[in-house]
Amino acid sequence: AADKIRLIPQDFFAELCEQIIQHLNHKIPGVNTAELCQRIQTSGVDINIGDLAKVANTLSFLFSTAARNNLSTEELVTTLGSGISTLPKHAVQVIRHVWNEQGKAIAVSEDAGNTATVGQFVDMKWKLGVAMSSDTCRSLKYPYVTVTLTVADPSGQITDKSFEMTIPQFKNFFSQFKEMASVLETV
């Protein structure tokens, strides 16, 4: 991960660290690595989303482990310096600053046991479509609903999951949501 961190400009690395801290503090559902990766690539840096996701997971592990062990800023920086592959100076400076500013808040939330072990629902979008024809059938006129769920996995990576349903399947899906809503109102 240290080799990939060297590629990331300091301002983007700082933004990534901030988002990870916010995720660990449960202020945002996750880190949108796809959007951040696109912005980094637009700035002229050759990094792919898989590498950026690995960096994000490494930083998330670093911050959550430091919180669990209640490390001070100096203890964290000393630990980083004693690693096998050393981090670039700009990365250590950013980590020091972010941990110094917001590290205690993570320690509080970690101690409270607020970490999620499953993904978190972020957003849902849907659209109604009609398949008019295909190579094998001239007249389909088949309505369908496309649903896109935006989900943050436990490490904070935000992904979209899409699927299509027939109208009867969508009606069943909708009735299940209504049932969940009525149960939630009783709580």
Automatic annotation (TrEMBL):
GO terms for molecular function: NF-kappaB binding. Residues 120-187 form the COMM domain. PROSITE patterns: COMM. It holds the Pfam family COMM_domain. Belongs to the COMM domain-containing protein 6 family. Scaffold protein in the commander complex that is essential for endosomal recycling of transmembrane cargos; the commander complex is composed of the CCC subcomplex and the retriever subcomplex. May modulate activity of cullin-RING E3 ubiquitin ligase (CRL) complexes. Down-regulates activation of NF-kappa-B. Inhibits TNF-induced NFKB1 activation. PANTHER family: COMM DOMAIN-CONTAINING PROTEIN 4-8 FAMILY MEMBER (PTHR16231), COMM DOMAIN-CONTAINING PROTEIN 6 (PTHR16231:SF5). This is COMM domain-containing protein 6. The gene is Commd6.
